[in-house]
Design a protein that fits this description.
Number of helices: 5
Structural class: mainly beta
Number of domains: 3
Number of strands: 18
Order of helices and strands: HEEEEEEEEEEEEEHEEHEHEEH
Low-confidence stretches: 280-289
CATH topology of the largest domain: Pdz3 Domain
Mean pLDDT: 87
CATH class of the largest domain: Mainly Beta
Largest sheet: 7 strands, antiparallel
Distance between the termini: 43 Å
């Protein structure tokens, strides 16, 4: 079925899509969210201390990371430019299965590549926690991350993030709007974790924990002397029952203290440590894994 003006719709989407290069570790995509230089991309696209944004017309800008949320996998960037071709954003709560979906991105070095398909579902996906995704039958490849998923009118309904079960998964546009309205979020702990069931010293069954696999140098976790092999049990207010609980505990902006309970070496004694989040040095860092 032909869509009147589809060529113009696709071209406008291309102009609102940018190439994001970060830390010498490949590239991704981003969306011009407002004409005064606000760009939205995925958090996992942003690495290291240097981020560059290239516009559709070839202009390149150094970008400042305004906010970074690993839980939502979103980051906002600021470039020193005005009168940019900002995307139009749709209400993702109104997206329905069967609607046409358009993805624009920069996969495998092909700048401004377009793919089309249909919406499969909107909601959580089994095995990926409680988060809502716009799920589309659209072919994505490395480099599409952070780019727009749009409806037939060219309005943004999500930020393309990953592929799972043969479907493209996008963070809903309403989630992006919530992320931006919340202001800067500094939710970086600096650990890689894996869920596990831990035997209790009393022998009364097992308890959920997050095994620390890696600690990033100079991260809040490193400065608090957390180590690989430690098992995070929860905060002083609440125990962890899922990976998402750690991400929820990290949410917030500005300097603050997170009191973490963990095990080290054996299961006999619960240890406690105060982790400083959102310090001034961390606020300048775009890393928030």
């Amino acid at each position: 079925m032909a869509i009147p003006g589809f060529g113009e719709i696709a071209e406008q989407l291309r102009r609102s899509t940018v190439l994001v290069q970060s830390g010498g570790r490949g590239s991704g995509s981003g969306v011009i969210w407002s004409n005064d230089g606000l760009v939205v991309t995925n958090a996992h696209v942003v690495h290291g201390g240097r981020v560059n944004v290239q516009l559709w017309d070839g202009r390149e800008f150094g970008a400042a990371v305004a906010s970074h949320d690993a839980h939502r996998d979103l980051a906002s960037l600021r470039i020193d430019a005005t009168n940019l071709p900002a995307a139009t954003v749709a209400d993702s709560s109104k997206v329905r299965p069967g609607e046409l979906a358009i993805a624009i991105g920069n996969p495998m070095g092909f700048v401004g590549a377009l793919a089309t398909g249909v919406i499969h579902a909107v909601g959580p996906l089994q095995g990926l926690g409680r988060k809502t995704w716009v799920q589309a039958d659209v072919r994505l490849a490395p480099g599409n991350s952070g780019g727009p998923l749009a409806n037939a009118c060219g309005n943004i309904i999500g930020i393309n993030t990953m592929v799972a079960g043969g479907l493209a998964l996008a963070v809903p546009s309403n989630t992006v709007s919530e992320f931006l309205s919340a202001g800067p979020a500094h939710a970086w702990l600096g650990v890689t974790v894996a869920p596990s069931l831990i035997p209790q010293s009393s022998g009364a069954g097992k308890r959920f924990g997050l095994v620390v696999l890696q600690v990033e140098a100079d991260s809040p976790a490193d400065l608090a002397s957390l180590m690989p092999g430690d098992i995070l049990l929860g905060t002083s207010e609440k125990g962890f029952a899922a990976v998402e609980d750690l991400a929820d505990a990290l949410q917030g902006g500005g300097p603050r203290v997170l009191r973490v309970e963990f095990l080290r070496g054996d299961y006999a004694r619960i240890r406690r440590v105060a982790v400083q989040l959102g310090s001034q040095s961390q606020l300048r860092s775009p890393i928030a894994a």
